[in-house]
Amino acid sequence: MKEKGLVDFFENYLQKQPLFKDKLILQSNYTPENIAHRDEQIQLLANILAPVLRGEKPSNVFIYGKTGTGKTLTARYTTNQLSSIAKQKDRPLKVIYLNCKLKKLADTEYRLIAQLLREYGRDIPPTGLPTDEVYQIFFTIIEKEKHNLILILDEVDQLIGKAGDELLYNLTRINSELKNAQITIIGISNDLVFTDTLDPRVKSSLSEEEIVFPPYNAIHIQNILSQRAQLAFRPGTLEEGLIEKCAGFAAREHGDARRALELLRVAGELAEREGEAKVAIAHLDKAEDKIERDRVVDLVANQPKQYQATLLAILNSCQGTKGVITGEIYSLYEKYCTETGLRPLTQRRISDVIAELDMLGIINAKVISKGRYGRTREITVGVNDAILQKIKNILLEELGLWNNSS
DNA sequence: AGGTATTCACATGAAACTATTCTCTGAGTTAGG
DNA sequence: TAACTCAGAGAATAGTTTCATGTGAATACCTGT
To answer: Where along chain A do its domains lie?
Structure first.
């Protein structure tokens, strides 16, 4: 009986026309053949990098722009073209792209170099070797290979934040010691004031050239969306005005094209799941909701236990809209710790945990001074009630506090 | 009343410590010749 | 004697703890009118 229903369901599913033609096109790592509204930046970057084809060293480049403005895309696109030409003309050129934000990959000096060496086919253990030795290996390999290296460091700000700017200094300085090879660095960052915190020497050598990516406006996003939608969806599956609405949503948030594409994709998925023949504007709203909920839920579920306990303490003491202060949270947190057998951390540490939770956007923590009564953080919950309840449930489950909690 | 000085309750920083994972090295051990 | 094993020294890293210092404004305390 039940099986029959399921078979029917699958048959039905197969018979239905899918809305998507190719969903991959809406994925964020998809590289389109032509990039809209970035001609100027592409040209600029190409101009800067072109000397490499003659075997000269191009200037280092620094690329800024908010998230979803096509920085990474442009850099990859341009360098791809460049290296294919170089290959044709038999010029020695290697382009390495590294995303410094990825944990365990390239977020420290050691790991960055190790990752570079991996690109050259040398396997470097994740730990155990002295950093300078790894440097030496890198050095000799590069010198031996005798070619120009273009190094794209995506989200350098993350790297510098953790590893310090000495690393960049070393990298830029390597050039003067290399005889047969050259390194060009393309730094990508979405933090506009990031270079101000850099050592002046590093700053001047890293950002010999700078390219700024302005945010897309609504029209731009609209173009990008419709371009991709045409490839990704079957004709006639998008409701009139959907793209415009979607673009509007994204433009409201500093022109983030990635957001817009994700929104469109999720809306499509929702529509498909509901068995609709068209993606309607209503799906966009639902999609926006779902993206946010998924993000937060995922985030919360993947936090370490200590963070979860802290978060639970915050959520449970944050009744209504008025804020709570660090001290209250800490004592409640301590209580949870004894209940769950967790070793309580110091208040100092919890202070940092709270700051990190704030960064993640789950809570809002603001440092305020209450005059005679001290200085502390005033913390409020940063998500809406529907999500909040869900988070609480997850936390209670994760911490095994189901039975004895309000 | 007006002006300082205190004081609270943490925030913020820096350094040191702990634990884990991993390599390298050299001493001791083993097995085969 | 060569190959193997294994403990110990070092490294890198993440997550904390310890110690030290900073801080903004509501109060407490003076002062002179």
So the answer is: 3-20+216-293, 39-213, 303-399
Q: Which residues contact A24 (CB under 8 A, 6 or more apart)?
A: A30, A232
* A171 CA vs B23 C1’ separation (Å): 25
Tokens of A32: 């389109």
Strands A209-213, A148-154: pairing kind: unpaired
Q: What would the pLDDT profile of A274-321 be if each residue is shown by its tens digit?
A: 888 888 999 999 999 999 999 999 999 999 999 999 999 999 998 766
- Is any atom of nucleic acid chain B found less than 7 Å from the CB of residue A235? no
CATH topology of domain A39-213: Rossmann fold (3.40.50)
Higher pLDDT, A105 or A83: A83
What pLDDT sits at residue A406?
44
Please, which positions of strand B sit below 7 A from a protein CB? Answer: 6-14, 21-24
The Cα-based distances of A84 to A44, A79, A81, A248, A321 in angstroms read 18, 8, 5, 37, 57
Judged against a pLDDT cut of 60, whether residue A372 lies above it is answered with: yes
Does the domain at residues A303-399 carry the CATH identifier 3.30.450.40? no
Burial (CB count within 10 angstroms: exposed 0-12, middle 13-18, buried 19+), residue A62: buried
Cβ of A372 near strand B (under 7 Å)? The reply is yes
A366 touches strand C (CB under 7 A): no
What's the Å distance between residue A371 CA and nucleotide B3 C1'? 17
Query: What pLDDT does A403 receive?
Result: 60
Q: Of chain A residues 124-153, which have a beta carbon within 7 Å of strand B? A: 125-129
Considering only residues A121 and A265, tell me which one the structure prediction assigns the higher pLDDT.
A265
Check whether residue A122 has its CB closer than 7 Å to nucleic acid strand B: no
What's the pLDDT score for residue A126? 83
CATH number at A3-20+216-293: 1.10.8.60
Residues 238-297 in A having a C-beta less than 7 A from any atom of strand C are none
User: How crowded is residue A316: how many other Cβ atoms within 10 Å of its Cβ?
Assistant: 17
